[in-house]
Amino acid sequence: MKNIKIWPFVFLTAAFGLVSCGTNSSIPKPTVQNSPSQETDAEDVPQSPKAPRQLNVVTSTSVQPLQETPEEIYLKKIKGITVECISSPKETSKNKAFSEPFVFAAKDSEGNPVNDFALTILCPEEKNQGAEVFQITNMSTNEEGKISFMPPVPPSAFDSSIKIYPTGDISNQKIAELADKNSVSVPYRVKTNLQYAGGNIALVDFNESGNPITNNSVSSSNLLMALMKQGFSRVGNVDLTKEIVSGNSQTVYKAAKNLLGSNSKYLIYGTVKYDSPAEKTADGKFSLKLNGEITCMNLLNGDIFSKIQLSVTTVQDKEWNCKLEAGKLLAEELAKKIPYAL
Q1: Which of 151, 198, 274, 312 gives a 20 to 30 Å CA spacing to 97?
Q2: Cross-strand partners of 123
Q3: pLDDT at residue 229 above 50?
Q4: Mean per-residue pLDDT, 206-212
């Protein structure tokens, strides 16, 4: 987008007054006789000074055009424009390119393609200790109003999205809000390649009073079964209760390495806690909400692949059944996300 500069002008109009000058007459002046006491030389008679020419200046102040704000310029640019996704590829695997590009289009209010329209694409590029890092790409539509975007080969697993919006300075909050309202997001899913590499699970269950249960982890067993149903193999359970409760990821990493050596490529660890004790509903049933906080760690170097926070709620006729069902449901939901988190 070109910078637009509007320079104000002040116009000055000057009007000069016209002054008429008389001409000498050809008629001779009469001679006036004066008494000796009244005689005065003509040269001694004082002459009235000639009035100076007047310069009248009229100043006209023109109305200056109002300068448009960046938000107004951006709003004018995107007025009537619709951005849409034409096609997107199926999910891929870590370190494997997508089979085809993502194709987007821009149309005007009448549905006609918009040529040479600038669009910005935010695409997941990598992960830094579990946090997604996005690549920013600017492209312009062709004569058909389309752009074709092929992401780089993904080095990590992702359960994310690609976002595209009309190009603008999103450091400006108002422009960022306008861009978001006129944006399109499509799924960007990359599956792990560690499904058969071998790993371990270490989850710590907390009781309704908020204390860790140290003798057995039902949640670890539930997640193990759920992952095996997802096709994972060479997965086991390991007890790292003390290290996990400490909340220090490096402590967990060192303990896991000492215990497992190089036999495990990844570790899935975390906590499962009650949001509140099981509550009796108005119709006599029981309701329970469980919160899971899970970290997927690379045991080769201690880096964090991803972090997952997930909550589930179940309602059952009996309190004990409510607890059992909540634990199984949480494990199933986590097992759906972990293939895109490792």
Answers
A1: 198
A2: 135
A3: yes
A4: 94
CA atoms within 13 A on the CB side of 268: 31
How many CB atoms sit inside 10 A of residue 278's CB?
A: 19
58-72, 177-191, 251-265, 284-298: the lowest-pLDDT one: 58-72
Task: Looking at the chain, list the stretches that DSSP marks H as alpha helix, in order from N- to C-terminal side.
Answer: 70-78, 173-181, 218-229, 241-246, 249-260, 319-337
Q: What is the average per-residue pLDDT within 100-120?
A: 97
In the chain, where the domains are located: 70-191, 199-340
Residue 141 sits at φ, ψ, to 5 deg, of -70, 155
pTM of the model: 0.77
What does the pLDDT look like over 312-334, one tens digit per residue?
999 999 999 999 999 999 999 99
Residue 201 near residue 334, CB atoms below 8 Å: no
Closest C-alpha among 269, 238, 291, 289 to residue 338: 269
Residues 3-29 pLDDT 10s: 333 333 333 333 333 333 333 434 344
CATH of 70-191, one of 3.30.70.3290, 2.60.40.10, 3.40.50.150, 1.20.120.450: 2.60.40.10
Task: Name the fold adopted by 199-340.
Answer: Rossmann fold (3.40.50)
- Residue 317 phi/psi, 5-degree rounding, is -70, -35
Q: How many CB atoms lie within 10 A of CB 43?
A: 6
183 SS3 class: coil
Alpha helices, DSSP H, located in 90-240: 173-181, 218-229
